[in-house]
Design a protein that fits this description.
Layout (H helix, E strand, L loop, with lengths): L8 H11 L11 H17 L6 E4 L6 H12 L3 E5 L6 H9 L6 E5 L6 H13 L1 E6 L6 E6 L4 E6 L7 H5 L3 E4 L5 H14 L6 H9 L5 H18 L6 H10 L9 H12 L8 H8 L3 H14 L3 E4 L2 E4 L1 H7 L10
Parallel strand pairs: 1-6, 1-7, 2-3, 3-6
Antiparallel strand pairs: 4-5, 8-9
The structure holds adenosine-5'-diphosphate (ADP).
The site of adenosine-5'-diphosphate has 20 residues, from helix 1, helix 3 and helix 9.
Length: 334
Amino acid sequence: RVLSSDSGGPLEENFSLALRPRTIEECVGQDNVREKLKIAVQAAAQRGEPLEHILFYGPPGLGKTTLANIIANEMNSAIRVSSGPALTKQGDVMGMLTNVNEGDILFIDEIHRLSAPVEEFIYPAMEDFKVDFTVESGMHAKTINFPLKRFTLIGATTRAGLLSAPLRGRFGMLLHLEYYSDEQLTQIVARSARLLGLDSDADSLGLIASRSRGTPRIANRLLKRVRDYAQVKGSGRLTVDIVERALKMEQIDELGLDELDRSFMRALVNVYDGGPAGIDAIAATLGEERDTLEDVVEPYLLQVGFVRRTKRGREITKAACDHLGLPYKGADKE
Ligand code: ADP
């Protein structure tokens, strides 16, 4: 068990591993997804067949990796983990595929970032459980046809639309993960606090949950920050006052928005007169990656109605301006 504080890297990973639910039952929320998975797992087990290929999509930190591990657990299968950017050559995939046993799970995170040649290489593996491997090149090129064991590919991506249509079409189940309610996040934080042996006042965990942007990963991360704060500035016990002070220090506001969320909205208002503005322009203004804005920042701002997406670009809403205390100039826009 890792209880030390850190801001990333392997310790952070261990921390989130320790808090990760292991079974479908232990998992909170995502009822629809869990129900579909339970049925699929049971049906496949009864038939003694591997599961269909599954694609999870939705914003980061909502449980895609967690669910992939849970499925492996429930199917009693081994899981091999990789990611789109890590599989650059056909040889990388070949190594993985030829090592799988019947029923193994292959988890590919950020699957939308597979290169085109690797993607095409995977098609026959997904469809017919075989690969055509080309050795050497030019005149001496030889294609070797290699049969594979029946495996299950689980892909994860932040947006299903980022996948090419042929790849998307090869998944039997496309499962969308949604933001969690405050109540569900409270359950998750309470479970984490219990696992970490934390002592807490009644409302303190709900307060953390309500500031977590609907995201379990953020909820666990904030819990960790608050735990540190309580230990150093208080008695170690989590109270509403401690949570408020700790989150203020983290620059998390009453709605759970952080500095990046706010600078995104401020840029829209101050630089682009409320919008519409293109995502590339906003990214350039903020000096941020476009991907980060599209995957992490925007989905939640859209969800809470602070940003609108139109054909001409992103626009700020009145609710956002009210929240930020900025004048709203968009009343005349449609
Ligand atoms: P993703 O792969 O979608 O980015 P993860 O699966 O890594 O997200 O989840 C991030 C963390 O959030 C996990 O370590 C886990 O502790 C927690 N978590 C995610 N989903 C749930 C859930 N449904 N119930 C409880 N904890 C969860």
